[in-house]
Every structure is written in structure tokens, then in C-alpha cells.
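Colleagues,

Please find the record for the two-part complex below.
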Amino acid sequence: MAEAVHIALAGNPNAGKTTLFNYLTGARQHVGNYPGVTVEKKEGISHHKGQDFRVVDLPGTYSLTAYSVEELVARDYLVNEQPDVVVNIVDASNLERNLYLSCQFLELGVPLVIALNMIDVAEKRGIRIDTEKLSQLTGVPILPIVARNGKGVEELLKTVQTLRNAPPPPRTLIRYGADIDEALRELVPSIKEHKLLAGIYPPSWTALKILENDEQIVAKVMLENMVVGQQLIDRSESLARHLQDTIEAYPETVIADHRYGFIRSILRQGEVTRMSDQDRLYASDQIDKVVTNRVAGPLLMAAVLLGLYSFTFNWSGFMVDWMSLLFEMLGNLTEAILPDGPIKSMIISGVIDGVGGVLGFVPIIMFMFFGIAVLEDSGYLARVAFMMDRIFHFFGLHGSSVMPFIISGGIAGGCAVPGVLAARTLRSPKERMATLLTVPFMNCGAKLPVLTLIIAAFFPAHQAKYMFLATLVTWLVALMAAKFLRMTLLRGESTPFVMELPPYRMPTAKGLLIHTWERTWQYIKKAGTVILGISILLWAMMTYPGLPADEVAEFEAMRQQAVAVSAEEEALLRIDGLQAEAGLRHSLAGHIGMALEPVTHFAGFDWRTNIALVGGFAAKEVIVSTLGTAYSLGEVDPKKTTSLKDRLANDRHWNPIAALAFLFFIMFYSPCFVTVIAIAKEAGSWKWAFFSMGFNTLFAFSMAVGIFQLGSLLGVG
Amino acid sequence: MNLRNMQTGQSGIIASIKIGGSLGLRIREMGLVPGTEITVTGRAPLYDPVKLRLHGQTLTLRNSEADHIEVETDPAEGKY
């Protein structure tokens, strides 16, 4: 069999590139990241008449500039991997804009085939395209296809094979106007003479990029030959001044305008007619009259977001319950089989609970990704961004940030893990970073039992009001924190909001299922091993070194005495509780908790609280059970906290002010480690994950200290 | 007329776009180029961003982005 043909699929977002990719490769796909960035790389194998095709789905882009990571990734892939053929998917009903990207492939000189997609939709709308004429004018094979059902794809693959086996015809040369062309005529010979970036980019392309002030290329040229590079830059700056003086324009925009001039001239000759151009978007416009209406729009959006929320958490509930039951059974089985001792304890509390922690999130994540994929593929998500942008933009975020916030607990009870993963819909790195660093402030479902416990113990008369205030406070703090980050560490221009509102489309079942599974699998694969390791570590911290032998003997003596006196079950349980408390105090976590007391007492915390908060890093639910142990109540079910509530309410270390400080700390301190790992994965570096832990904890502690000290000063509570 | 000041339903042809750099390129990459006919089809609930129709697509821009675009306009019509 012949060697596989290497195809790179490229195109504008919404042009049907991924639909074609899914059609060609089906389930035979592999998803990873491009090296050094968090842009997804999708690759698959297609077989056709005895020939293998290795198909790579490049990120959807509108051009090949250096202004976004997706565009750089797409460009660098073409240059570094040199696919046999680039298949440029073009939306037949929006040729002018789509062909702009095609122009840039022509400039780069890659072997190119244009697949004119959705040709059936275009024809229905009265658009007639003479593909042979266009092909002559551009020097590129142009084939009509319908990616949705595979029509025309066979001919496309045949053309790809033909092109791969034959040298590409000469490129059509685009003209950029007298001033630009003159500058190019000066730069190109110099680039050739000094062999700058030779063998990587065509000299004319390199020259064009210098005139466009393309940062990546300018840096590469300077690295290779600083003297000649500086001369080229000087010429480029001279051109910029000339254009500013004569027509008040910029080189990069003059070049872009001339690309469009080229496109328009070939479209005029290609006999494209538009008898009823408006009809393509007519249905979407009618829907948008309601969906983005000033009054109905926000109400409908609230309903949709609530629906997504319910779908994510309620519909996945039965699967989460299955997971819990499965791991509970596994724990019970291990309990019965293994002898008592550290191995058993580690396997149950470290390994099984740790694995349960990973897999317990899977149903929620799957449902969340499926729901978001529906909203995204249908086109509705773009409307949400449109309606929310004014508010979120004020805080340095993007209209699309609303989704991660809702998922994380914008409506109390969400989960930051899927929320962080949902931030990948954001295109701008800085806005995405600000979003995923602040969504953990939302009140996730695991924080709710703790909040409920404390509020019930110290503010019993106003439980509903306090829970509502907790939600409101987290929104305000998260948005203000985002603004703070965007004004400091994540400073930078907002992503332009020049964005397409795609026409509404029915998502394909195949696309939805593939999207959902590939994203979920990435989470399981990458997060699983790290979470297991940390889970065992946390178990060890709360177990070792354990009680000294003499103290164990003391508790044993107490049991003997209790049995001798009355043999009451309650007395024995009390002794068990005291022993567990002592064991916890002697653990590494206990030592950390006591070591932190000199600092944390300013916030009203003691060693018991500190230990619970260390344990809460594993999962916020652990705070309740650890408090139970620390207060010698033994095992406390997070859902049955009456005794713990009463104990706290009567403890002299606790009062309403201390409780309020604790509440604030709980809401805002370090995300749980599963979320931290999700942040590390999405941010592409552990630096940001550790920053999230540090920043959040310092912030939470400052708030807690402020509340406790001010409250105590005022003598309240 | 500046794009920010156009009314919903109003059409025109882009006369000039006076911004370079990443925003200038981004605006053009999306098909907003001198000579293109556009129609304002709506505004977000808080009146920012604005929604535009040009042949084959619907785009959104923030008012701060629309400020850079000058349009030769027709009188407002009730197209939408």
C-alpha cells in the first residue's frame, strides 16, 4: 500500500471543516495539544480505495496573522510539518470572507485544494458559482462538496491524490498597490541574497510579513541576521510613514484591502450571482428577533443557562449515584477482605476514594460538554456572548465567560472542574486565564454542606437569606478579582469583539458525541494519575505518624474501664472519637494545623479548623468530616451534621463573627486539587495552578482576618 | 457617518476604516472592508455590541470598535 497522504484541513470557523473531518475519520481520531500551547490538535486516518489519508484538523482561523495562538499554530504546522496538501474548506455562501484565508495560503505557496462546502445551501439561495473559472483565476483546484453528507468528497480525495503526485502549477500573484509592491521589490532580492529563512518560507512571503510588522517573522529574521534584518525593518518603517502621510493608512491594512480587491475581481469574473442573497440568514434573523430582543433575550438566556445547569447536574445525578455506589461497594469489599492496618486504610481512603474522586466527576463533565457542544454547534453560544459582553467586558472578561461561571456555581451547587474546562470556549488567552482563575470562587456543590452547617449553627433564623448572600458575594468577588487580574498580571487589550453570529444550525449527533467523548477522555487520562497521587499524599498527611504507643495504651485502658463499669455503646463511641481526634492531632496535617495557629488565630481559627481546611484541599466535603473527627465526634456524615452543628454552636472558640470569617475563607480559599489540576491543564502550566492556590488563599485569609478583627473590635457576637 | 451612530435598520457602504494593528486586521479579516455594504440589524440588550449584516454573514462589534468605521449611509429603512 502506498504511503499515507498527509492532508491538513483548514478553514474559517463555521465553514464545515470539522464536519468534513468527522465524515472522513469517524471515530478513528486522536486528540492532543499542539506542542507548547493549549490549542487542540485533532488527527485521524481515512481509507479510500486502498489509499490511506492522514488527516489533521487545523484550528479554525480567519487568517494566518500572528495575532492569535490558533493562527500561529495553523501557520507553523504548515511550515514545519509540510502536509502533502492543504484542503481549504470554504463556505460557498460567504465566499468573499472565506477566500481571504485562501489568499494567505496562496501567498505561502502551499499545495492547495479549495473545497467549496455547503454548495447545496448556496444553490438553493440562488448563488451560482463557476468553479472551473474560479479555478483558472486562482490556479487552485476548486471542488464543490457537501461535508454534511459526504457529497463530492470522493472527487475531493481523488484531486488530493492527483495534486500530491504532480507539481503544483505556478501561483497567481496578488498585487498590493504601487507603494507596497515597490517595497516588496526592494525587500525580496535582499532576503534571497542573504538566504533569510531560506527553505522555510518563500522570500516574497517573508517580505510581506515584515511589511505587515508580523512579530514572529521579524523576530526570526533578526535572530538570523540582525544587520540585514534592521535594514529591512527600516524600509518597512519608511513605508509605514509614507502611507500614513499620503493616505493615512497602515501597511497591514493596505495589504488586507488589496487581498479583498483580488478576491472581488476573481468573483466578478467567476460569474457569481446572488438572486436572493438575504435568504440564507432570514430564518436566523427571525429567531434572533426574539433571542436577542432587549427584554425577551435575557429572560430566554436565563432559562437556557438554567437548563444547561440542570442538564449538567441533575440529569447526570443518576450516573454520579452509580459511581458512588460502585466505589462504596468496592470500599466495603476491601474492608471485608483485607486485614486492618495501614495498607487497608491507604487502599480505601487513598486509592479507592482518590479514583472515585476522578471518576465521580466524569458523568458531570460528560453532560456539561454535551450541553455546551449543543449550544456552541447550534450557534446560540455566540448570542449569549453578544448579550453578556457589555457586563463581562467591564470586568476584563468576554461575553462567553458567563458559561464557565454558571457551571462552576453561579447558581449555587455547581462544580469548578467542569467550569474550568468550559473556559476553553474563550478565544483570548488573557480573558480565558482570568476566567479560569476566578471561576473557583463560585459556590460549588461541595462547599454547600459546609456553608449550610455553619449558617445553621450560627445564623439559624436567616438561613435562606445567608445562602443567597453567599451566592451574591461570590459573584461580586469573582468579577472584581477578574478585573484586578486583568489590570495587573493579565494586563492587555481585550480581544476584539468583531465576531460572527453564525446562522442557527442543527448540531449533528456524530459531532456532538465525538466532541463530548474526546473532551471527557482527555480529562480522565491527564487528570487521573495526578489526582490519585495527591489523594494518597493527603491520606498519608492525615494518617501519619499516628498516635504514640503510650497514648494508644491510654485509650485502650479507658476502654477497659468503660467496659468494666457499664459496657455502654455510647461510652465506647466517645472514646473512639477522642482517639481519632488525638490521632489527627498527631498527624502531619495536625502538626501543620497547629503550626499555622499563630497565624490563623487572627482570623479566629484554631488547630481543628486548620486541619479541616488542609483536608478541604482534597475536596471541600472533607471539611465537614474532618471537623467531625477534630471535635472527637468520629465519623460525621456530611449530610447529617446535627451533632456537629450543636457542638460548634456551644464551643467557646466559635461565635457568629468567627463563623462569618470562616464562611468567607471557605468560599474563596484554594480550589480543591482536582480543580487545581484542571487549571494546570487548561492554562498549560503549573505556574498558574500554584498561583491560583496562593492568590486565592491569601485573598481569603485577608478577608477572614478583616472580618474577625473588625467584628471583634466592634464587640459583635 | 460613524458606524456607532447608525440606527437599527439603517444601511450604508463602508467608506474608510481608520485603525491598524490587530484590531484593524481583525475587522478586515471578518469581511468589513471599504466598499462593503452593511446594514445594522440590532443592538445587544445594553446597546453594546452592535449587530451588522453584510452579504452572507452577521457580525457583532463593540461600540468602541465601531468608532473606527466611517459609513456612507442611506436613510433609515424598516428592513428588519
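Helices of chain B lie at 21-29, 63-66.

Comments are welcome before we finalize the supplementary table.
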